[in-house]
Amino acid sequence: QNATSPIMEELIAFHDHALMIIFLISSLVLYIISLMLTTKLTHTSTMNAQEIEMIWTILPAVILIMIALPSLRILYMTDEFNKPYLTLKAIGHQWYWSYEYSDYEDLAFDSYITPTYFLEPGEFRLLEVDNRTTLPMEADIRVLISSQDVLHSWAVPALGVKTDAIPGRLNQAMLTSTRPGLY
C-alpha cells in the first residue's frame, strides 16, 4: 500500500536515500574491480601513499554519517507523542486481538481472523477480520499495545507503525492517517 501517514512518507524517502547511497557505492566498487581485472599496470607508489589511506578512512565515515543522521531524525519522529485525540488499547491474544477505546466507557470488542472459506472475492486470506477497528482521519491517535499470553506484533504498514505486544508490558505508538481507507 502507499504511505498514508507523514511518518511512512519519511520512511520511504529515507529508504530511497539509503538505496541511492548503496547504488553509488556498488557502482564504484564494480568499476574498481573491473579496472583491476582489465589493467595490467600496478603502481608501487600508491601502496604507501598517505593520501589514499586518509581517503579510504574518511570517506566511509562520511557515508555512514549521511545515512545515520536522517535515520536518527526519523527515529525521533516516531517516538514523538502529542496530546492524543483518541486512545486505543490493543491486547493480543493467541488467536485474536481485543480492542478497547479508552476514552469511551464500555466500548470494547474482539477481532478474529476470518476463516478462508468465509472470504468474499477480493478479500485477503489472513488479513480479513470479523470486526475491524475504526479510527478517525487526520487525528493523533495513541495506541497502547500489550499481550495477554504470548509475544505478538501489532503492525499497520501503510501508517508506518509496528510495535511488539509483550505480556506484562504496555507499549505505545502514535499514528495519524492523512486519508481514509482500509489498512
Give a verbal description of the structure.
It is a single chain. The chain is α+β, with helices and mostly antiparallel strands. The chain folds into two domains: 6-79, Helix Hairpins; 86-175, Cupredoxins -  blue copper proteins (Immunoglobulin-like), CATH 2.60.40. Helix content is 34%, strand content 22%. The chain contains two helices and seven strands. The chain has helices at residues 6-38, 50-78; strands at 86-92, 96-101, 108-112, 141-147, 152-156, 161-165, 171-175. The strands form two sheets. It has a five-stranded mixed beta sheet with strand order 3-2-1-4-7, with no helix packed on it. It has a two-stranded antiparallel ribbon with strand order 5-6. Strand 5 (152-156) and strand 6 (161-165) form a beta hairpin. The protein is elongated and about 80 Å long. It starts with 5 loop residues before the first helix and ends in an 8-residue tail after the last strand. The model has no long low-confidence stretch (mean pLDDT 90). GO terms for molecular function: copper ion binding; cytochrome-c oxidase activity. Residues 1-82 form the Cytochrome oxidase subunit II transmembrane region profile domain. It is found in: Mitochondrion inner membrane. InterPro entries: CcO_II, CcO_II-like_C, Cupredoxin, Cyt_c_oxidase_su2_TM_dom, Cyt_c_oxidase_su2_TM_sf.
